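debug: dumping io for the single-chain case to check the tokenizer round-trip. Nothing else runs in this session.
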Amino acid sequence: MKKIIFTICLMLVSLQLFAVSFSLQVVQKNTNENDVYGPSYVMEQAILDYFYDRGCIVSNGAVIIFQNEETLAEELKKSFCEAHAGGLDVIVNLSVIYNIENSTNPSGILLSNIKEIQWEALSLSSGKVIGQGKSNPGEVSKDNNNYKGIEAFAKTVAKNIQEQLSQKGGVR
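debug: decoded output
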């Protein structure tokens, strides 16, 4: 009986040693607001949930509202340092690029307000890029122009991130 308990404990410890930890840093772009839009929060939460459900240790920083390149670089460096200090493995910088010029509800939780998602994953130990990509929501209809549509899009983006990171020996 002691051997069985010891074996189970050893297996659980082994699994924890291989858990990938990462921080998600969302950047909101192409808005003239000082407020974070709802779709940015939905994207963030859905991606964090996706990885958490797959056994990853997840963290996030406050959403950054893009003002200019210099300020963004400073904010991303701060996020990198915080994630590194937290002992995490990877940071994923995810930009939510909005196209709200013709929107009837610019701050609404609408998939049609999102033009594109761009992301870049960095190893916190080396500082090197270990994955990157972009995706657009595709065809938006009245059936998916809502919270559920944004959530589904976010899960697709998360799956793309996972696939690239798994090729680099990261998230499985």
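debug: round-trip ok. Residues 9 and 90 are 27 Å apart (CA to CA).
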